[in-house]
Structure formats: C-alpha cells, structure tokens
Amino acid sequence: MSTLSVARGNASLPQDVAYLEKHDPARNMQRYYRVSVTPALFGEFAMVREWGRIGRRGGSRMESWFASEEDARRSGQEMAEAKHRRGYRPLAAAGH
Q1: pLDDT in tens, 6-43
Q2: Superfamily (CATH H level) for 15-90
Q3: What are the residue ranges spanned by the domains of the chain?
Q4: CA 80, CA 65: separation in Å to the nearest integer?
Q5: What's the pTM?
Q6: I need a surface site. Which of 35, 47, 74, 86 has the fewest CB within 10 A?
Q7: Helices (H), strands (E): how many in the chain?
C-alpha cells in the first residue's frame, strides 16, 4: 500500500524513514516533514519528527520510544503515510 520507501543504514546514526515536502504556490506554502529513527542511550530507539518551512528551522519532537529499531521504523512509516495522505510528497533526490 505504501508508496514511501524505508531507508536502511548504520543503526548507530539517525536514519531517515521519510523526507516529504508540500508545495502550494497559491497559499505560499513550502513545507517539509522528516521522520527519522535514532538510537537512544539505553538500547531503545526513538522516532523523531521534524517539520517546518523549507529553508527555515522548524519544530522537532521525539515522538515515541521503542524496544526495537523495526518497531520505531514501522511507526515512523505510519506517520509518514498519514502526511502523504495530507498532500506531502517524497522527493526523488537522496541526501535529506
């Protein structure tokens, strides 16, 4: 069902689950939304959300703590899919 891809990489570094943008020139809207997974101090994983206007520092929040990286990624994917339904789209270019 998902059109968003899950990033894989070194578990010791924060890894993006999704990076999405929403553009609406009629409303002067240029927003981004990033979901990432990062390891925590005691072996658990945190799902982190970041959002804001493109080119500006936005908000961020450690949303939830999970016992496994897979659980954190699954939750992040669900969050990204909800944003996708609201008009945010993934970028084809890597590096976000």
Answers
A1: 344 444 556 888 999 999 999 999 999 999 999 988 88
A2: WGR domain (2.20.140.10)
A3: 15-90
A4: 17
A5: 0.73
A6: 86
A7: 1, 5
